[in-house]
Each structure stands twice: as C-alpha cells, then as structure tokens.
Amino acid sequence: MNRQSTTGPRPLAGWGWIFLAGWLALLAGSPAVVQAARTRSRAPKIVFIAGAKSHGPGDHEYERGSRLLARALETSPSLRDVRTEVHLNGWPLDPRTLDDADAIVMYSDGSDHGEVNHPLLQGDRLAALRRAMQRGAGLVLLHYSVFVPSKRGGPELLDWAGGYFDYESGAGRPPWYSKIQTAATTVVPASPRHPISRGLQPFPLRDEFYYNMRFREPDPRRTPILTTQLPNEAAPQTIAWAVQRADGGRGFVYTGGHFHANWEVDSLRKLVLNGIVWSAGRELPPTGIESSLSAENDGDLSAHDSADWPNVGNDKGAMRYSPLRQINRDSVRNLKVAWIYHTGDHDPAANTTIECTPIVVDGVMYLTTAQIKIVALDAATGRELWKYDPKTRGVNRGVAYWSDGKPAGERRILSALPDGRFISLDARTGRLDPQFGQGGVVDMRAGLDRDITGLNYGSTSAPAVFEDLAMVGIINSEGQPGAPGDIRAFNVRTGKEAWRFHTVPRPGEFGHDTWAGESWKDRSGVNPWSGFTVDAARGILFCGTGSAASDFYGGDRKGQNLFANSTLALNARTGKRIWHFQTIHHDLWDHDLPYPPVLVRVKHDGVELDAAAQVTKAGVLFLFGRTTGKPLFPVEERPVPASDVPGEEAWPTQPFPLKPPPFSRQTLTEDDLTDFTIAANADARAKFRKFRTGRNFTPPSVRGTVTIPGFHGGATWSGASFDPTTGLLYVNSNNVPNINTLLAPPPERPDAFNYTGYNRFLDLEGYPAIKPPWGNLTAIDLNRGEFAWQIVLGEVPALTARGIPPTGTENFGGAIVTAGGLVFIGGTQDEKFHAFDKKTGELLWEYKLDAGGYATPSTYAVDGRQYVVIAAGGGGKLTTRSGDAFVAFALPRKK
C-alpha cells in the first residue's frame, strides 16, 4: 500500500487528479474528459439490449449470450466493480435506463426481411440512443445488430460505431442480401497494440460471420481489431473493429456472435469482454478481462437484472414465453412463497373469482381484483402502492400499459370494464387521466348504431396497445336482441375513437352476402371478447371472434355468417381487413374462438415462417401464414350432420385441419361412457340413448344433442403458450360434453326456438358421464404438426382416494413457458399450481393454493430474483371456494 507523508502539505493523489480534471472539463465543456471522469468516479453501468427483434422475446441465442457476458463482467477478478442490466425482451420499456449507461451493448436481431423493422427504428429508440451517444456513452454492436438500413440509422452508426452492414446495398439483390458465411477459420488480431486485442495471438474459430461492411474511408478513428480469410474471398475480411469518437465516446463491433456455443474459446471471450469494458471508458488491465465463468451459468441473474412481463401475454403476440431461467428444472423443487397480496374483496356468496394475469413494468405489478379494483404493487414485495376502485362488478383478465417512451414521460394503465367504461389511469399514481375521454373515462356504450339500454356491453379482456391506439374486446348478448360486437380502436391520449370494424358486414362490405336477407341487422354476438394480439413490426392486429347470436339456433340468420367464428387480421392503424379465416360456419354450438391467435415462428420444409396459431373450443388448432392467412397445414371442408330442427339450415360442411391432430375428443359413443361403477355406466347409457349423438358438429335438437367438445372446449379463454426455442405450443383443454337442448317454440312463434341452458352430461355422482381424462395439457410441435406429449391435467381427490388414477378436471387459466425448461399452470379444480418439464410433461413441482388458480400466471425478475405469480381467486365456473390472493413464488435468497 502507498502511504502519504504525514508532515507538510499532502500531494494530490492519482484519483484526485482525475476528479480535478473532470471538474475542469465540466467547466470547459470537454466531453472526452467528462466521460473519463464520470466513468472512473463510479462503477461503470453497462446495459445489454438482448434479443431486440421488435416483435418480442424469442431470440434466445442473444439472450443467453448477453447473460453470460453480463455475469462474466460482474464476476471477473479483473474488475473491482461493474453494474450490468440485461433487458431480455429487446429494449428497455423506460428509455431512462440508458441515461446513465456508460456502454450500451446490442446483441440482437436486426430486423425481419421486410427491412423496416430494425429495433432502432421503432418509436423514438434512435432518439434515445442518440442522447446517450451525445453525452459520450460507448456503443457495442454484436452479430446481427450491425445490420441497419443505410437511409435510416446508417449515418449515425458510421459516427457511433465506425461502420455497419448496409443490407440495402447490392445492385439487383433482394433487400436482405448480405455476405454471410459460417466457417471454421483462423482469426488474426489486426492491431496487437490496441488495448482490446493486446497480447492475443491468432486463434481458430467456427462462427457465423457478417462481412463486407460499410465504412467511411479514410477514418482515422477506426482501428481494425480482427480479420480473417474466409472461403471464396480474395482478401482478408474485417470482422471486428474499435472506434474512438470525437465526443470522447468509444465503439466496438464484432460481427460474429454465437457466444454461447463459443464461450469456451478463451481468446474470443476475452476479446469481447475487453471491447465492452473499453467502450465503457474503463482502461483495461495488461492481461485483459479474465473470466472463468462456465456457459452453464447463463441462467444466473445478476443483482441488478430485471425482466418485465409488460402485457398479459408478455410479448404483444402472446407467446407467454419468458427467457428467464433462474427457476429451472433443477431448482424448481426449492420454490417457496415469496409474498401474498390479499385483495380483501372476494365474496363467497357471489362465487367471485379472479381471472387476471398481472403485468409487470419497471418493477411494478398491475392487476385487477375479485371486484375489479385496479391495484399497483411493488413486484418484489407485494406492497400496495395505489388502488383505484371503478365500482363495477364482473370478471376481468388484466390491464394494459402504455408509455410515450420519453424519460419522465407519460405512463398509463388502461382498463376496459364489463359495464362499458374504458378508463385510463396514471401508472405512477393511480389517478384518472384528465386528458382521456371525460375526466379519464370513455363511455363505450355511447356512439353505437342502436339503443342498447339494458343490454350487455363491455369488456373482460385486457386492451391491446399499438403505438398510440388501444383496441378493446367486447362482450355482448349471446341471444337477440343485443349490442354490436364491432372492433373499436381508441386514441390512448384523448380517448377518441380512431376506427371501427363491423364484425357483421353492412351492405356493400365484404362478407355481407353471407347473411340471408335482413338477418345482419341489429345482430349481436360476432365479438372479439377474448382480446387481441399484435404484430407490432407489421402493424397487424389479430383476433378471434365469437359466434353469432343466438348461440344455438340460427334459423333467423341463415348463411355462413361472416365474420363470426373467424380469425381476423386487420391493419392496426386503420382497421381495414387484411385476411380472415372462418373456423366454423353458421355456428350452432357456442364454439367461439376463445383466444386470439398466438403469433409464432415455425420452420416448414427448411424455411422459417411467421405464423398465427389459432386454438379453438372445437379442440383443433389452425396454423396460418401470418401475412396471408393461408393454412400452413392442409384443411379440408368435410360434410357434417344436418339439423332436424324446423327452419334451421345448418351449414353442410365444416373445416377440418389435417394437422396437428385434435387435442380434445371429437366423438362420443357408448363405449366412451363412464365405467367407475356398473350403476353409473348403466345410467349414462340410458341417458345417452335418449339423446341425438354422433361426432362434433351434430346440431342441437329438441330431444337434446350430446355436444363434444362441450361449451367449455376444447380450448377456452386460457389460450395457449409457445416456446420459440423449440417450436412447441402448449394448450390446456377440457373433455366434458354438454347436452344441447332446444325448447319447442310457441305456436304463434314457430321460429322462436330457445335453449334450456348450459347443461353438462353427468353421471349419478355428479361427475362427467364420460371416461377420463376430463382435462389435458398438450404440447404440440408446430414445425411437424404432431404432439410432442399429452398429459392428464388435474385430479379429483375423492376419486384418487378410491384408487382411481388421476382423471384430469375442467380447467380455466392458461400456461406459460420459460427458458428454464418449465411450463407453469394452475387452472385445475384441485386448486393446485403446477410446474411441468416442458420437454416431457413430467410433473416437477406443485403447490396447493388456498383457492383455485383460475388465471394465467406471469413471471418476471426484480433485482436479480425471478418470481412466478398467480391469482388464487377460486369460484367462477368451477364453483370451488372463492379466494382473494395473488401468490408470488421465488427461490430462497442465497445467504
């Protein structure tokens, strides 16, 4: 240790000179010295923007590599202190996180092949990055993030990073043409004296390299760092370089990038870590940045890592996938309750439930309670921050978040209510936004084309947010008369309606001819009650619609009835139809599309395709090309049974996807009836013989028709989740038949058929009169159109005690899937919360909740700790005891 003299004036220490230089630079306005003083006076902050494809998470190679790099920096013996943040879903929702970053590392996808979707070109991201560069922050570009259009973003990257790949170059080439080679080669340090490559020797490497970059020549600021001789190229190619900017900031670019696969290549690991630390303004030790971190630690979260769940489906395409892996196959057995928030407003006498999926943004959780109070919690502790009571009742499945993207800018929580109000709250305070509608409230019941006094009209699903628009799903009457089911978009700042799409086409509109005569007039149903998904990169809004009213009799609405029971793709900015596919013609079974299509990416015949996966109450899945609506697996129109009800004209055919196979039962025969006891079987057979029976799409009848799948699916509003790393989609479903019975009409109204209600087909003990399983969880490989596995979901404890294997139960509340190898789901009547191995379906962990978890969970991270949260509200359609809790689980903190 160096000691100072204790006599006479004390000389200024080395660090003192740096601080003095910094203050002098502040007075003189020198960015270079300001940056040096700032980065040396505190631990540098390095922000990783990982998997930055603008449509959501899923670029797992980038996410895993970013976590490895961040952890390597935080654990390196070469560094005394460093702060890292890894934003796993592509871009910080709050751009203020970049305001004090010393280096910004983009390890990401550049764009889709439309070449307009680069993450830098979304919203005001380029402006946020520009602010960081203007104050001298460093910029590191890894792998595909060096791709950017030359006309937008390219000039900035020339200044900030010294070069980029111009994928608009190449005369006569398609826009995405580039020189890309995956090669085993020897890479050579081009500037052995530069701090980044000091001491490195040539080393062998197999990687995917981008090259033929656009540089400004000459550029004395840029220093080549690595070159390599690639096959079929005449000259060595530059694959890494550094830049010292005039503003004092630094840049580093490496165009390879499979870090997880190449993590054990010491020279590459050191080079990239050196480049990041050097770009942050920190001088490198003579031997560079050392790290002995194993690639197996890529799931570790650092103390500063956070990851949001910003929409009810996480990404706007509702994959419900999380790249978090702190909770994984090995560690999930140690999962414990981290906190419980009691809403205090459940009502057992009213059979209340909670179906809300909490969202999490910047460490704050937003949710709705049993009585639809809107609450903000500290996501790490469950401490209540604010509460707003809209004084309404019903069911709500979540809220939406909107931000203007500006530092300290506007943040809003949007909620559409069952009573028809649409409200906007300040996300920080919970107060109504006075600029939205009338004092923060829009009355959606106003401005319709008919008087809906006394009729059902409102919303139960979370709004979808795209740019400055919010789209709202509608609930309305399932019989006539009723309110319209039109899709409506509102401006999130003002509450003014921006556009409306008629789900029942008017004269002159496409599809109007699918309604006989005047049957389109004042028609109810045909509503997107389950919400929306959004392809934000393309500006496409997706939804699935409900059946036309009345649910079980269509004699007064002859025809195919567009756009009922249809997957719809609309222009999100204008509401204009792009494509549609009707999954059931002239629905008579209440087989609404219960969830919007999940936006996925699949590989068919070696080609990667963007797709939309639609699960149905009918127990089948349709897979569509996302931009065309063309089925990606064959679909056949097959004859189905005719109706025997006077006046009814059931549609003669229905669409049947040939792949994947149905995930719920499609037929019911006497051999399928319960056999728990001889008496139960005899009773079920006697009932069965009285009804009209057959396969699915057997129409309702006055004698009663056994409907399979039943009114609760197949799939339900529980929807599906998708793992982009494997191509597997996970859907929970029911196998409980209903009896669909119409009441004979009075003589004066021979066409006025009504129905007797939602009657289940039950045995003597009140259990479903069909052999188990009554509930399933299925993993479907969307690349092949085959099941990966299917398991029984849930059990009836009373039957298990009698030695009957688990039967499964009806279930409500969907699954989420994580990079940790897990599928989390509650939903079952046995009130358990489960974690399954996503590869095999093996049960790895379960927890008995105090009330049923009839909601889809979410997972997130705050300050390096991953949480999984689910609403335990019970009650509802499964009529178990009501509850009032949100329960968050996490691993015990390391001591």
Question: Between the first and last Cα atoms, what is the distance in angstroms?
Answer: 32 Å
User: Which ranges are low-confidence, i.e. pLDDT below 50, for 5 or more consecutive residues?
Assistant: 1-41, 52-59, 111-116
Number of helices: 8
Main beta sheet? 9 strands, mixed
Q: Which secondary-structure class do the elements indicate?
A: mainly beta
Mean pLDDT: 89
Q: What form results from the Cα inertia axes?
A: elongated
Mind explaining what this structure looks like?
The chain is mostly beta strands and 895 residues long. A 9-stranded mixed beta sheet has the order 2-1-3-4-12-11-10-7-8, covered by helices on one side. Residues 1-41, 52-59 and 111-116 have low confidence and may be disordered.
Short description:
Helices cover 10% and strands 30% of the residues. It has 895 residues and is mainly beta.
